[in-house]
Design goal:
The protein is mostly helical. The protein has helices at 3-29, 37-53, 56-73, 79-105. The protein has one domain.
Length: 107
């Protein structure tokens, strides 16, 4: 494998790891808001699947889940709500970057 492909694979793995880290931070916020446990589990599964399989479909699913969670939680603009939105936007950005990189890898 060429050096460029290895860098792209590492970038996809880093984006998946970013999703897992954001889900772990979100689980700390979920201690105060129990309704966040479902998105935390979904983000953990998507992040670990991106690290394992590096599929564009999984990256797209992660991006869609992140956008839907962002839309559903955007009505709460307290300090805790802004923290949730920041972490979910982190997941959306990481999913989008991993989607772009996985499409470049599978081209």
């Amino acid at each position: 494998m060429s050096d460029i492909k290895l860098k792209v694979i590492d970038s996809i793995k880093n984006s998946g790891s970013n999703i897992v880290v954001a889900a772990c931070f979100l689980s700390g916020v979920a201690f105060f808001d129990y309704m966040l446990f479902v998105p935390v589990i979904m983000f953990l599964i998507v992040g670990l699947a991106i690290v394992k399989w590096k599929s564009p479909l999984i990256c797209l699913v992660g991006l869609i889940i992140g956008i839907v969670c962002f839309y559903l939680l955007s009505s709460d603009l307290t300090q805790l709500g802004l923290t949730k939105l920041l972490l979910i936007s982190w997941v959306c950005i990481s999913s989008g970057l991993s989607l772009i990189k996985s499409l470049l890898l599978n081209r």
